[in-house]
């Protein structure tokens, strides 16, 4: 029986969504094809209609996930601070499977194929461009630098907040970075800038 084009598109969407969630939760290497098809409610055969191998799936998950989750909900007119207040929350920290793909998957990219790193680089370049339109700076180069700094601080804070088993420390990490992003000069005056 021939599968309709609409069904093929829907199956692909389900496979990518399931794989993305599972890989955010457990990492790329621990998730198998059977796990993905089971979570998507499809058969092994459906998988191979869309992906040539697990490696192909991983590359496509990274391309899909980074583009979909990168600054999801970010509205340049609202500013990066408003986005940070939504991003650096205990709820986002606790939603590994549905949260930010950069925080959940980026560290793995360095150990994966060049195709994965290319997908991350392409998505990240576009995200930095979007963020740079919402940060202060006298030039495009300065705004880009600020955007990279702020996004790196946000993702790093989320990674570290997820890594510790101490709830108070985890919350403190999120709050401290949020305060430094909302008031960068105040943070330096308070002694966080130790350069001499």
TrEMBL record:
Gene3D superfamilies: Homeodomain-like (1.10.10.60), Tetracycline Repressor, domain 2 (1.10.357.10)
Domain (HTH tetR-type): residue spans on this chain: 9-69
GO molecular function, one term: DNA binding
PROSITE patterns on file: HTH_TETR_2
Residues annotated to bind DNA: 32-51
PANTHER family: TRANSCRIPTIONAL REGULATORY PROTEIN (PTHR47506)
UniProt-recorded name of the protein: HTH tetR-type domain-containing protein
